[in-house]
Fold:
Amino acid sequence: MTGRAADGSTTSPGKERRIAVDRLRSARVFDLLDETYGRHRWRSHGTPLDELIGTVLSQNTSNVNTARSFRSLRAAFPTWEAVRTAPEEAVIEAIRSGGLARIKGPRIQAILSAIARAHGRLSLDHLADLPIDAAKAEMTALHGVGPKTAACVLLFSLGQPAMPVDTHVHRVSGRIGLVPPRTSAAACQPLLEDLLGRDRDRILNGHLNLIAHGQQVCRAQRPRCESCPLQSDCDYYRAVRVSGDG
Structure:
């Protein structure tokens, strides 16, 4: 039975041990992040469509600018149908404070039109009844909606166990060694979801605390490794700082 265990499994004992070690290490990492940055309670951020548009507005800007542009858009247009059918320049002007308005405005209108064509109404509430992979696939089929945006909708609106992988989550999880080197952000998402047991609350805390760690300690430039609580479980610390190359 070369390459196959007697019970039909294709996973070798050595690989099973490595997976078990990886899970133990990742559990320590996320527990330490929870201790450092606190635990967060899930609450819905609004309807799936609200969250989708809000996440599009958040691309390449701050949370403050995102909130400002979302409020401005809703003040100018009381319904998503009004946004969809408005003159393009009017939508651009309404979201100008969020940056990249000439990209985001037409993108939002195109997304709304695609949803209206597909469902006959402007709602994504049906996503709550779909298997999570089907919901991800439906959203990422919309132009301008990637895996991170889809995961934000599923996690923050619907409470589904989807991990949004932004630049901080991607960088920190790679440096620590939670995912293999050179793993793309898209490929990072299911790996982290599996490590966190596809559990909504663990994923919520993992996501928010990886971001906090990336902003405060594991920064893109000049990471503060000397004050990092994850030193004993971090590949980057062992390989770069302990060797004296950092």
